[in-house]
Specification:
four-stranded antiparallel β-sheet; alpha/beta; elongated; eight-stranded mixed β-sheet; about 35% helix
């Protein structure tokens, strides 16, 4: 098995990189991914793999049926992009203004399509089925729920998803796979804090109530939650990502709007931080003669890798790529979030990582950075991992 996986994966490397670059040029947001879906369907049609289109979004579910009955393993590739202005200067940079594959989902789609080609060529050797899930709306937190509602997880015995970038840490060598048991992400909530003040001329601030100053105090106060209200080492992050207020240089506006996210691994800490955010925002606003609305929306839960399946995936990857390429523990908590948690809560799941940063090539920026990119020379390892997992699972 090892020999054909390595040779056939390397044979597809040029196609893999070409597909990744094609996806990269056409980054699409949320649930509406017409060009992305077109590429996925074109490739599945070329391979003769049957698929079904979602009705609720532009997700695609395909299935490779083995020659004999058996279990079903699913692989999820999220294929949506981000609202980011790309700054990579790549020859295949985004052709859609203000949108970018800044998280590596272009590589995810390409890797799964190439793995599908190899598995489809060897389907007569499989006992069971491989389900291929090309998911929209991961960044918006809607895609996994839509997929599950439309039956993508029906009859699945296990599900895996691979993520590129440096999400497992900057200290891992390029091309390392991190397959970890237990929690591998943070639960995520997003919030909007709207401070209602009183507008006035900037020359007469005493005649108004300045929501910008009040919102600034809320930002500073919320920074103290982790510093002074949680024990050292608690895996929790509260971050503000947007601060909008006013339009003119000479007017104090009526409102200021803050947006951000809370990421934690513990449900209890998640509730505590949300409650403190609301209390702090409202009390500070009231203290300075303003009012405040806080909209706190629950997002993805923590991704919990099934320990038995994680050990199986690590062994399968090690078997093909060698033990120097696979790690099963890291030193720090992982605070990213992913709606893969929805799948992993309903079926044994493993969410694992391929390190695609490479300092020697200047590929060092984190996921979601305008200059983020991947070392394409190691993407074949992701394809090999998928094929090895499926082949072993469906022996």
């Amino acid at each position: 098995m090892k020999e054909y996986i390595l040779s056939e994966t390397k044979d597809l490397e040029a196609r893999l990189i070409s597909l990744r670059r094609e996806f990269h040029k056409f980054p699409e947001i949320g649930s509406n991914l017409p060009k992305t879906r077109e590429i996925v369907c074109r490739e599945l049609d070329r391979m003769g793999i049957e698929y079904k289109l979602n009705s609720s979004d532009d997700g695609v579910v395909a299935e490779i049926k083995g020659a004999h009955s058996g279990k079903t393993i699913a692989f999820r590739a999220d294929v949506d992009a981000l609202h980011i202005v790309e700054q990579t200067n790549l020859d295949f940079s985004s052709e859609i203004s203000g949108q970018m594959h800044g998280c590596g989902h272009d590589a995810h789609g390409a890797m799964l399509l190439c793995a599908a080609e190899i598995l489809n060529n060897h389907k007569n050797e499989l006992n069971g089925c491989v389900r291929l899930i090309f998911q929209a709306g991961e960044e918006t937190g809607t895609g996994a729920k839509n997929m599950i509602a439309e039956g993508a997880l029906d009859g699945v015995d296990a599900i895996c998803a691979l993520h590129v970038g440096n999400l497992a840490g900057d200290d891992l060598p390029t091309g390392t796979l991190a397959v970890l048991p237990g929690p591998v992400s943070a639960g995520k909530d997003k919030f909007t804090v709207t401070v209602h003040g009183k507008g006035t001329h900037s020359a007469f601030p005493e005649k108004g109530v300045d929501p910008i100053l009040i919102a600034s105090r809320i930002v500073n106060a919320c920074e103290e939650i982790q510093a002074r209200e949680l024990s050292a080492g608690t895996a929790a992050v509260l971050s503000f990502g947007s601060f909008n207020a006013g339009l003119d240089h000479n007017s104090i506006p009526e409102t200021a709007v803050l947006k951000g996210s809370i990421r934690v691994q513990s449900p209890e800490v998640r509730s505590f931080i949300g409650e403190r955010l609301i209390t702090i925002s409202k009390n500070i606003s009231e203290a300075f003669r303003a009012s405040c609305d806080v909209d706190l929306k629950k997002g993805s839960a923590t991704v919990m890798n099934n320990e038995k399946l994680a050990a199986f995936v690590a062994d399968a990857c090690t078997d093909v790529l060698g033990k120097e390429k696979v790690v099963t523990q890291i030193s720090s908590a992982l605070m990213g979030s992913d709606d893969f948690a929805n799948y992993a809560s309903k079926a044994p799941g493993v969410y694992f990582f391929l390190c695609t940063n490479n300092s020697q090539k200047g590929i060092t920026e984190a996921n979601h950075n305008p200059a983020f990119t991947v070392d394409e020379s190691v993407l074949w390892e992701g394809v090999a991992a998928y094929v090895a997992i499926a082949a072993e699972f469906l022996k």
